[in-house]
């Protein structure tokens, strides 16, 4: 921080700065709390989606053991199509959201493939959708992590640097101005006594 001037105008400016910092800090801290809450929700969402995806994959294997039969080709039955993302504004931070996930199911003849392939296709389609949601949730979390770190730095700047330094500057200026005022009063008294003494000598010499 630049060296502060020890003057009344500087004192006024420092007091104005202190008031600004003290008004801005609570709003900034509230933003940090909102982002931290959203970050926790994002972490919970990722955990839930991953668990759901793992259960889906496990259930598919349990329900359709025939998937292990390599004589029935399953490749290309399901693929990811268009993914449309939106944005959500959380405390001034833009985060991605999933608006639409297109899962393309390739047509196949039920005469060529057995009936259980339908169940496999359903589970694969759901797994693809969940994979997209997991990926977007991870991007949300990454954005929130950066935002929380950035806001925390600003909160610390105000709380631990700017406000204490400004308060110190105000105390220094007040001490300096107080000393200067007392010195001026003392000098005025000395000058007054000197003038009175000179006046008395002049009167005595007449």
Tell me what the structure shows.
With 206 residues, the protein is an alpha+beta fold. It has a domain at 29-158: Helix Hairpins (Orthogonal Bundle). The chain contains 2 helices and 2 strands. The protein has helices at 8-63, 117-205; strands spanning 78-90, 93-105. Strands 1-2 form a two-stranded antiparallel ribbon. Strand 1 and strand 2 form a beta hairpin. Helix 1 (8-63) packs antiparallel against helix 2. 10% of the residues are buried.
Strand order within the widest sheet?
1-2
CATH architecture label name of the domain at 29-158 = Orthogonal Bundle
Instruction: Assign the structural class, choosing from mainly alpha, mainly beta, alpha/beta, alpha+beta, or little secondary structure.
Output: alpha+beta
The dominant shape is rod-shaped
The total strand number stands at 2
Q: What summary fits the major beta sheet?
A: 2 strands, antiparallel
Strand percent estimate: 5-15%
Tally of helical segments:
2
Keywords:
206 residues; alpha+beta; Helix Hairpins; 2 strands; 70% helix
How do the helices and strands line up, and which of them pair or pack?
Elements: H1 8-63, E1 78-90, E2 93-105, H2 117-205
Antiparallel strand pairs: 1-2
Helix pairs in contact: 1-2
Please sum up the structure shown:
The protein is α+β, with helices and mostly antiparallel strands. The protein has helices at residues 8-63, 117-205; strands spanning 78-90, 93-105.
């Amino acid at each position: 921080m630049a060296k502060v001037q020890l003057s009344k105008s500087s004192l006024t400016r420092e007091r104005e700065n202190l008031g600004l910092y003290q008004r801005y800090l609570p709003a900034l801290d509230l933003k940090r709390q909102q982002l931290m809450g959203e970050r926790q929700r994002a972490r919970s969402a990722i955990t839930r989606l991953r668990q759901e995806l793992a259960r889906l994959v496990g259930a598919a294997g349990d329900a359709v053991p025939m998937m292990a039969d390599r004589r029935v080709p399953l490749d290309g039955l399901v693929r990811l199509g268009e993914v449309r993302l939106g944005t959500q504004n959380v405390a001034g931070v833009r985060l991605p959201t999933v608006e639409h996930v297109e899962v393309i199911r390739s047509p196949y003849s039920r005469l060529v493939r057995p009936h259980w392939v339908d169940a496999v296709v359903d589970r694969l389609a759901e797994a693809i959708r969940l994979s997209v949601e997991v990926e977007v949730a991870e991007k949300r979390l990454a954005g929130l992590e950066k935002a929380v770190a950035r806001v925390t730095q600003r909160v610390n700047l105000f709380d631990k640097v700017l406000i204490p330094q400004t308060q110190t500057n105000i105390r220094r200026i007040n001490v300096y101005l107080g000393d200067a005022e007392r010195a001026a009063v003392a000098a005025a008294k000395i000058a007054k006594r000197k003038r009175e003494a000179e006046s008395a000598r002049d009167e005595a010499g007449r």
